[in-house]
Every structure is written in C-alpha cells, then in structure tokens.
Amino acid sequence: IGGYCTPVMLSTGTADLPGLYSYMLMLGVGVIAIAKYKDWKMLNSLSFLFTYSLYWAALHKFYKPEDFTVAISFASAFFLLFAAIPVMNNIVHKQKSNALTLLGMFMNAALFFPTAFYLITDQFEREWVAVVSIALALFYVVQIAVFITRSITDKNLLVLLTGFASFFITITIPLLLSDEWITTAWSIQALVFLWMSCRMKSNFIRMLSYVLYFLAFGHLFIFDFQKNFVFARNMDYTHEMLTRLMTFGTFIASMALGYLVLKRENAGAGVISEENDTREFIPQTASASVFAWLGAVLLFIYMHFDFYYMSRTFYPPCQMPL
C-alpha cells in the first residue's frame, strides 16, 4: 500500500505518465517475482486494484492524444503482468484455480479491453480495435495449447480460457466486417466450432458453437430479414438476391452441415479429457433434430419471400400463385 501511495503523496501536479507507469510496472514485476515463490493472494489482489486505479486516475487527469503510445503500451504491459500470475500458480505451483483466481483473470481482461477500445477509438477508426481482439484471442489460444500439451487438469481454468478466446474471436467479426457479412461469418465460425467440438470431444466448445448459431440466427432475423425483405428497395433485384443468398443461404448451409457433423460424430477419446470438460447440457440427438427442422423451416421462409420478390420484379401476376 505504501509503495502504490508514494507517487500520489509525492505528486507535484504535473504530467509524467511514463515515469508514473514505469514505477507501477516496477512494483508489478516485484509482485510477479514474489508470486514465483509465494502464493500471496492478498498481495496480488492489492497490486491489481492499485495498478488499474492509478492508471485510470492518471489517464483521466493528464492524458493527451500524443500520449497514446505510452498509454496503450503500459496498459498492455499491466495486462500481461497480471495474466502471468494465474499461469505462475497453475504451472509453477501446480495449484488448481479457485474462484478468486478466475475472477482476477476475468477482471483483468474486462478492464484492459475497454481501456484499449477507448484509447484506439479516440484517435483511429473502430476497425483498429480488431488488432487488440485478435491479439487477445491468440494470447488465450496459446495458453490453451500449453494447457493441453502439459496435460494439466483444471476444468475451470480451461473453460475460462476457451471462453475468452471464443469471445474475442467472435467480437472481431463485427469490428472488421460490414453488416452484410456478420451473419455469414458467424455461421461459418459456428460450424467450425461445432466440427472442433466433435474432433476434440469437448462439450464446452459445442455449447460455444450453439451460442454462435444463436447469435447468427438473431442477427439474421433482427437485421438481415428486415433489410433484405421487409424494407427491400427492389431497385436492383440481382444484387439484392445475391445478398439474401449470401446471408440466408450461408446460415442454412451451415445448419445442414452442422446436422451432418452431429450425426456422423464417432465415439472415442478426444483431446479434451472428461476431467477438463463440462457436462453435456443438450443431448447430441436432440441438437441434430433441431438443426434439421430449423434449417428446413428457414429454407422454406427464405424461398417463399425470394419467390415473392422475384415475381414482383419480373412478372407480377405470378406473385400470389408462387
């Protein structure tokens, strides 16, 4: 507490972000050094609390656009610093993660990403935030790979790492792509996750694929359906038809392929052990049935509306019969 309060008590009121953040980073490195030998959770928690509090307080009071490089660099350094502590406990001390450790990992990501988002969007286009989300996804994917390679048994930690990686991959799509491509990208990503879950025998990854299918379905009917059918301008039928085929067609094809993946999954051991996996919330046979029926219903709806607009464009008398 004394170490982190020192720069506050000695403050002269002038801006010196590099000096302050370097001092905080030095204290953080000291905490990491201690964490290698001692699992002092109170020390880790206090360091986390004071670091982010001082970082945001100084940013609010002194930040200027020309300080962007300093601010984003030290934010990244602080994130990596506190991300290393759970790894230290899990790999070095061979300890399973507890609720406090998982909460710390969640808060670290939950504080860093909005900070990076604010700093980047303050000066650049929103698309540049995707650089951070992709980097975070890769960061967690690497940890998952190390986790599996070392055959570590810690279900809660693996589930959290997989959830983080999936979340940052998912939000990268709307950051980079226009609205027309979001449903298509999420549909493909959901199918890939479903295939991965069958190959790795992971119930948790399968649940993530279901969540992605739900997001794609929601975007399809809340945004794409309104834009392509309800408020269709019908000025260029060919272009609008191709857009509808891309969004609805990709999602329906993803559902059909997902059904085949679920039906053809072979039994046997997977990459993820049962000790590191969640239980199966939705039976596989029930999921396959939902995929088949929902895909068939969506195909009917899509073709119904597309025939309607095609007839209205080329031969109106056939509109109602079709």
Order of helices and strands: HHHHHHHHHHH
Largest sheet, strands/sense/barrel: none
Structural class, by secondary structure, is mainly alpha
What value does the Rg take, in angstroms? Answer: 25 Å
Please identify the oligomeric state: single chain
End-to-end span in angstroms? Answer: 75 Å
Helix count from the secondary structure assignment: 11
Overall geometry: flat
Strand tally is: 0
Strand percentage lies at under 5%
Helix share of residues? over 70%
Average pLDDT = 87
Low-confidence stretches: none
Task: Write a short abstract of this structure.
This protein is 77% helix and 0% strand.
Using brief descriptors, characterize the structure shown.
mainly alpha; 322 residues; 77% helix; 11 helices
Overall description:
Helix content is 77%, strand content 0%. The chain has eleven helices and no strands. The protein has helices spanning 2-9, 17-35, 41-62, 68-92, 99-121, 129-149, 155-176, 179-200, 203-230, 237-263, 284-314. Helix 6 runs antiparallel to helix 7 (155-176). The longest helix has 31 residues, at 284-314. The chain starts with a helix and ends in an 8-residue tail after the last helix. The model has no long low-confidence stretch (mean pLDDT 87).
